[in-house]
Amino acid sequence: MSPFIEMLQFPFMQRAFIAGALLGLILSTLGVIATLRKMSFFGEGIAHASLAGIAIAILAGFAPLPIALIWGVLIATGIYLLERYTKLPSDSLIGIFFTGSMALGVVLMQFTSGYQPELLSFLFGSILTVTASDIWIIGALSVAILGWFFASRRALTYIALAPESAQVAGIPVHRQLFIFYIALAIATVLGVKLLGIVLISALLILPSATSTLLSHSFKSHLILAVIISEFTILLGLTLSYYFDLPSGAIIVLVGTVIFFLSLITKKFARV
Question: What residue ranges define each of the domains in the chain, with the CATH number in brackets?
Answer without folding.
Answer: 3-270 (1.10.3470.10)
